Amino acid sequence: MKKAREFYFLFDLVNKITLPEQDLLINKPKADKQMGLFATDDIPKNAILYVLRPMNCLKAATTYTIQYDDNLHIPDESLKVAKYTNHGCDPNVNFFFVETDEKEIQVTASGKRYLVYCVAKKDIVKDEEIRFDYLTTEYDMKEKFNCSCGSPLCKKEIQGFKYLSNELKLNHRDLIAPHLKKYLIGIPDPRPKFFYFQDLLNKIPYEDSKLISVKQNSFKQNGVFANFDIPDGVLLFHMDPIKCWDKPDLYTVQYDDKLHISHPQLHLAKYTNHSCDPNIDFKYILTDKKEIDQTADGKRYVVYAMTRRVIPKDTEVTFDYTTTEFDMDAKFPCKCGSKLCRKDIQGFKHLNKEEQMKIKYRIAPHLKKHL
Ligand SMILES: [Zn+2]
Ligand SMILES: [Zn+2]
Q1: 332: CA distance to ligand 2 center in Å?
Q2: 125 shares its domain with 243
Q3: d(CA 56, CA 75)
């Protein structure tokens, strides 16, 4: 029997794992005879497709290079499988620049070195073409071209970030490479700053955001609501599991088999209601902080609330209790109204195998052994 494929996520990088070479992708000619990059398997959202290790960058761009800094372009040799990644205006992957100390990696003008991670922005199905938005890396391309990506968001003529209107530049704000950020300075931006997981990797000091607040929902219960339109992948608040409780109650969040995050550490999780199709997940991110409770297998995690799709302003923020709770004291009838609603909620243990597999990339570490 074919062994199930393993995927690696941006979240795994805090473990400092070395990603194995994977055969997730293949280059082949498309219907129009142009080369393209295609998925050889279904790939879940947030999975890493490949890592670029920029070395010996070129001073000038070619047709295939990816821009790394103002005057540095990643050459073919470093691109490997990525060489034939075509452009898309509504792409299924994005590049994340994550700082590294590795001395052989090309240094930028600001003295930094980056590994460039290609990450799935959405679930990708087998044989789907992999596309990224060239405007997130290229400032001024040698030649413009007419895009035929077919997306309703298609910008038609692609020539680099430089040629975008201020409005479109701002739309790209959180997805662009570090060397493009300076071109946003001075453009009035009504939106707050959003904090992403990759900011944690780049050691940008984290603070809980003011993006959400507690209000009454339509059932006259407390709920958490978005104060702004919040993009996908944004960290909203965090929990430090310190002095965990050994018994759950209605509000606690399960941290390990016998540990539950206590009320003082829950912050807004206390008011975050359940949905079977939630718009946030709790991400358990390894930490060295000694004050954090250790799990039975000797690990420590900070738990971050992260959006899993765009949350429009005034929408209630919800998470799926079955992604953290194994076996709840009492079941409750869900009224989330989602097409995916499971009606009775009593924890991960009470889901059937198919339902458990559907959420396997989103569950807390202590639930993984039950798969
Ligand atoms: Zn397009
Ligand atoms: Zn439901």
Answers
A1: 10
A2: no
A3: 7
Closest CA to 361 of 12, 3, 117: 12
Residues 227 and 304 in one domain: yes
Supply φ then ψ for residue 356, to 5 degrees: -65, -45
Tell whether the model's pLDDT for residue 51 goes beyond 80.
yes
- Say how many Å lie between the CA of residue 344 and the centre of ligand 2: 8
CA of 340 relative to ligand 2 center, distance in Å: 7
Which CATH number does the domain housing residue 57 bear?
2.170.270.10
Per residue in 149-208, pLDDT tens? 889 989 999 999 999 999 999 999 999 999 999 999 999 999 999 999 989 999 899 988
Name the residue range of residue 354's domain: 197-370
On whether both 213 and 346 belong to a single domain, the answer is: yes
pLDDT at residue 223, rounded to an integer: 96
Provide φ and ψ at 331, rounded to 5°. -85, 155
Ligand 1 centroid – CA 146 distance (Å): 8
Residue 98 and residue 201 in contact, taking contact as beta carbons nearer than 8 Å: yes
- Judge if 209 and 267 occupy the same domain: yes
The pLDDT confidence band at residue 342, using thresholds 50, 70 and 90, is very high
pTM: 0.91
Q: Are residues 296 and 337 in the same domain?
A: yes
Nearest to 175 by CA among 67, 96, 70: 96
Residues 248 and 310 in one domain: yes
Based on the fold, state whether residues 95 and 233 are members of the same structural domain: no
Residues with CB under 5 A from ligand 1 (ion): 89, 147, 149, 154
Supply 219's token pair.
Answer: 């059932």
CB distance 159 to 174 below 8 Å: no
Phi, psi at 273, each rounded to 5° = -85, 165
Proportion of the chain above pLDDT 70, given as a percent? 98
Count Cβ atoms below 10 Å from residue 108 Cβ, excluding itself.
Answer: 19
Q: What is the pLDDT of residue 6?
A: 83
